[in-house]
Amino acid sequence: MGKNLKMKSARVALDFSQKDLADAVGVTRQTINAIEQGDYNPTIRLCRAICKILGKSLDDIFGEEE
Amino acid sequence: MGKNLKMKSARVALDFSQKDLADAVGVTRQTINAIEQGDYNPTIRLCRAICKILGKSLDDIFGEEE
DNA sequence: AAAATAAGTATAATATACTTGACATTATAT
DNA sequence: ATATAATGTCAAGTATATTATACTTATTTT
Fold it and tell me: Domain B5-61, CATH 1.10.260.40 — does that match?
């Protein structure tokens, strides 16, 4: 599984730290980090929550496997 | 969690049974049924696999919570 | 009417998403 | 130089996605 650079760039574009995004979404910092690192696949519910905060669509952030 | 009628209609439009889709995607029939019934949230990897088979985007099938 | 296929539901077991806490590293500041 | 914040990683625990098995209720086919 490749890294999720689209998620990372969307996050830093909003000047959010991993912890900022984690708090906004209701998960831990490690979970956000692991998703960005590609260490495991989140559930669709978590993906939706992340996209909502980042102002992006599912296809934007989780569309294609790298 | 509401039912996923978009997934169900995309499936029947291809004349796929729940088992047909399950086999194509590599999960059990019960998993497909549970997702359509809204009984639990799948992982993004499974969502991607389902969308690929159904010829739809993530936003099409898993875009909005009902 | 019976036989077969599809769908819905339930329960117990297993795999894995996610948490918590800790530690190391790399920045960015003061 | 030394704090401080942000990141990356690891191990152990908890929550839940998914499997396997089984039973029930349609719906279709013979």
Answer: yes
